[in-house]
Every structure is written in structure tokens, then in C-alpha cells.
Amino acid sequence: PKAPAPPTPAFQGGTQTKYGLEVIDKTVIPAKADLVLIDFGGNDVSGPIGGKPNNPPEQFKEDLRAMIKKAKGADIEVLIVIGERSNPWLKPNVLERWPAYRQAMLDVAKEEQVAAADVCTEFANQASHGIPPVSQLHNWINHPGKNGHKIYADVILRCFE
Fold first, then answer.
1. Does the predicted TM-score (pTM) go above 0.85?
2. Residue 152 C-alpha from the chain's centroid
3. Rounded Cα distance, 129 and 42, in Å
4. Using CA atoms, how far apart are residues 161 and 148, in angstroms rounded to an integer?
5. First and final C-alpha spacing in the chain
6. What is residue 142's three-state secondary structure?
7. How much of the chain, in percent, has pLDDT values that exceed 90?
8. Do 106 and 60 contact (CB within 8 A), yes or no?
9. Rounded to an integer, what distance in angstroms lies between the CA atom of residue 90 and that of residue 79?
10. Which phi-psi region, left, alpha or beta, contains residue 79 (left: φ > 0; alpha: ψ -120 to 50)?
């Protein structure tokens, strides 16, 4: 409980898995991290209404697998974080695409034998408590607010129990 856990900033908003493939080499591995949380999907799944996603699910899956292999090759533990879906009224076709990306993350976690924190399901379960899931987004679009971050933390911390 008293072990230091210094964070290694290796994130940038608005990015896709291609950024993750770069930052793991440039920042995570040189920092000799013990654990990396891989949380992509929201920008990969996005794209123009009626158009194709920015990064198709098949490539998304292979990018995740490549990040995991790089991390494992450097003796870094991996936790895939399956983030929340964006507001369904923002871009309805993005919501329809999300299950394939969520499944890709679950599949890769199982195939590569790494942990997965399914924040997406926990967000969706808020509705059963009378809480609209989008109300946990600080901008009501796609990023968690204070309560949304608590959901993230709770789900991630359960992976360590």
C-alpha cells in the first residue's frame, strides 16, 4: 500500500490506436513502467455520419494486440480499459459501431491474457439506478466528469482485488 506509483504521462486527447503504438515506444517503455492502461476506441470508432469509422475494428484489434506485445516484451503488465460510449444523440452511427470495438477489446484481452476493465458496461448499468449514463459525462458528449471518473476508478480498482 505504501509503494510509490509514479504516473507516466502517455496520453493525448483526440488520438487513435496509432498514437498508442508510437507513445508506448517513445514514453512507456523508456519509463520502465510496471503497468500500462490501454484505453482507446472513442476516436477510432468515430467518423463522419453515414461514413466509415476512423479506424476499422479489424485494424483497431491488431493495433491493440501490437501495443500489448510491445508492453509484454518490456515486462510491462497490461490492463485494457473499455471506455464509455459517447452520447448516442451526438452521432447515432457511432453508437451502432461501438459493440464491435468493445468486443474487439474483450477478445484481445482474452487472447493475449491481459486484464480488461469494462467501464462501458458499468456506465450503461447506471440507467438501472435511475442515472442517465450521459449525465456522467462532463460535457454530455464523450468525456467523463467527476462521477464518471469515479466509475472508471471503481472498475479499474476491482481488477486488483
1. yes
2. 10
3. 25
4. 21
5. 13
6. coil
7. 57
8. no
9. 28
10. beta
